[in-house]
Amino acid sequence: MTDIPVVENVLKHNDEFAQLNRDALRAAGVSCVNLIGSPGCGKTLLLEKTLRSLRGEFRVGVLTGDIATTRDAERLAAYCEHVGQINTGGGCHLDANQVRQGMKALPLADLDLLIVENVGNLICPVGFDLGQDAKVGMFSVPEGADKPAKHPRIVLEAGLLLLNKIDLMPYVPFDFDVFLHDLRSIRADVELMQLSAASGDGVDDWMDWLRRFVAMKKEARAACTT
Amino acid sequence: MHEISIMQALLEQVRALKPDGALLREVHLEVGELEHLDGEVMQTGWTVLTSGSELAGAVLSITRVPVRVRCRVCGQEYEPEDVAVLLCPNCEAVQPEVLEGTGVLLRRMAIDEPD
Questions:
Q1: What is the domain partition of chain B in residue ranges?
Q2: Average per-residue pLDDT in chain B?
Q3: DSSP line for A21-82
Q4: Strand pairing partners for B59?
């Protein structure tokens, strides 16, 4: 028997595709957010509100991932011209090649921002680089306060964390102090925004974050090219 | 359940690296703790995906890589006992940079060379 030493990342192919996506987005001047959260945490509703508010301000494209159905894409298409649905056929996360295929159908040169709505899942999508500029992690009140402690990697890797459905706090058991303590035991320096996509509370903060994010990426790109 | 995706990627990688005609005996993976990959599910995935192929019977061995971080405030490196509590033992800041504990690495393959 012969031993062959190898040191190869098993996700090498994914990471190569992610880099291609990153290069294509950068060349087109598009900032990209990868939105990650559990099923039912409110990702699509938040995006509906976001797309409606940003219409006329930014040129936004959306790729939305689901195991099956085109329901999310249909919902979002009411507010945005450039929406693509990626069906993973059972896969619990989006990979970079799927996003690459989805990007081919979008007019990247005409966009400022690409939002990738990942498959509803707080675990698997975190490990797959898609070529995004930032991962945004989304929790919601009815999921319970223990979610950050149970999902430390999204806390560690997110550029922003959202806590959605704060309007439900009076009605469901959710200890915000525990949530915050657990979250801050993993990482003190990640921004947390509390909002309710349904009532609209806090959604303006998220919109402002997106505006700053797009502006910051544009400045960084301009600095790179001068 | 991203174990199956990982096993599929591994399978492709092994096929690309294995010399033609060699018999694969074992593959050795290092799996970061923060990947949240279940060892048993990976074993099942490996068995199912290799079944009936030229790789059938090859052993998948897995080493877990614990999380190791560096404090962004004081520079202290530490291995937290609990990945959900990343308080720096030196300065008590919670601004960890992850050094180890993510990623899945193919480290070694054992083969029987073709005659």
A1: 3-67+100-112
A2: 95
A3: HHHHHHHHT-EEEEEEE-TTSSHHHHHHHHHHHHBTTB-EEEEEEESS-SHHHHHHHTT-SE
A4: B26
**How close is the nearest chain A Cα to the Cα of B18, in Å?**
9
Secondary structure tally for chain A: helices H, strands E: 8, 8
Dihedrals φ, ψ of A130, to 5°? -110, -5
How many independent structural domains does chain A possess? Answer: 1
> Per residue in B71-103, pLDDT tens?
999 999 999 999 999 999 999 999 999 999 999
Cβ contact, residue pair A2, B111, below 8 Å:
yes
Residues of B contacting chain A (CB within 8 angstroms):
1-2, 5-6, 9-10, 12-13, 17, 22, 25, 29, 34-36, 72, 83-87, 93-96, 98, 102-113
Beta strand pairing status for A134-140 and A158-164? parallel
Task: Enumerate the residues of chain B whose CB falls inside 8 A of the CB of residue A3.
Answer: 108-110
Model pTM above 0.90: yes
Query: Which two three-digit tokens encode residue A125?
Result: 């999508």
**Cα–Cα distance between A6 and A12 in angstroms, integer?**
13
- What's the average model confidence in pLDDT over A3-28? 94
| Model ipTM value | 0.87
Expressed as residue numbers, the domain containing A99 is 29-219
Third-level CATH fold of B3-67+100-112: hypothetical protein PF0899 fold (3.30.2320)
CATH number at residue A45: 3.40.50.300
Cα–Cα dist A47/A168, whole Å: 19
Instruction: Round to whole Å and give the CA distance between A37 and A18.
Output: 20
Per-residue pLDDT reduced to its tens digit, A68-124 = 899 999 999 999 999 999 999 888 899 999 999 999 999 999 999 999 999 999 999
Distance CA(B39)–CA(B33), nearest Å, equals 11
